[in-house]
Amino acid sequence: MAESFDGDTVSTCDAPGDVDLPGPRRRPLRRMRSTTRSFTIGEAKGHLTVALTAQGTPAEVMIRMAKQGSTLAGMLDAFSSTLTRGLRQGVPLKVFIGDYVGMRFEPAGLTNDAEIRRASSVMDYAGRRLALDYLPYEERVALNVLNAEERRTKETVDVLGDWVWTDLMGLSMSAAPGVDRRN
Fold first, then answer.
1. Which listed residue, of 19, 92, 116, 146, carries a Cα 20 to 30 Å from 181's Cα?
2. pLDDT value of position 57
């Protein structure tokens, strides 16, 4: 049996657990490196676990929050399952993050994460955290997800405009007033 995905034909037969199938449909490895981050949003506490492929990209995302059997726990289980299946099907992480950043619902408020001071929902926090950890700077700028230092640098660059250039290390530098560095 074969299935078509974006013009590619992909086999849907089961493969051993240690083998990635070619194309967008991949089975997870039996053993993956993962990170778990504890977080709070307002008064709510939770854990974000991300399992990584051998290349260091997210393969599974799990969010645990609230007590088992609660509505929030059930919705987060469904969210985690959908995100994980989408990643296995080849959906880019930035597509999910673009949908989740900015979502508003409770719990919301201040977080205990130094890089993400405030979240408008659990989805917003998860999207921002995944972006900061796994997306390159250029993609995060397009999604408006920056850490505090990057935000300060971007504000400086935006204020100075043409009077800013980048040194060899990639750090923003400002020119003295009246010096045109564009030539």
1. 146
2. 87
pTM summary value: 0.69
Full 3-state SS string of the chain: CEEEECCEEEECCCCCCCCCCCCCCCCCCCCCEEEEEEEEECCEEEEEEEEECCCCCEEEEEEEECCCCCHHHHHHHHHHHHHHHHHHCCCCHHHHHHHHCCCCCCCCEEEEECCEEEECCHHHHHHHHHHHHHCCHHHHHHHCCCCHHHHHHHHHHHHHHHHEEECCCCCEEECCCCCCCCC
pLDDT tens-place string over residues 48-92 = 999 998 888 898 999 998 777 788 888 899 999 999 999 989 899
**What average pLDDT does the structure give for the chain?**
76
The per-residue pLDDT for 40 is 92
CA angle 51, 77, 120 (to 5 degrees): 90
pLDDT tens track for 98-111: 999 989 988 899 99
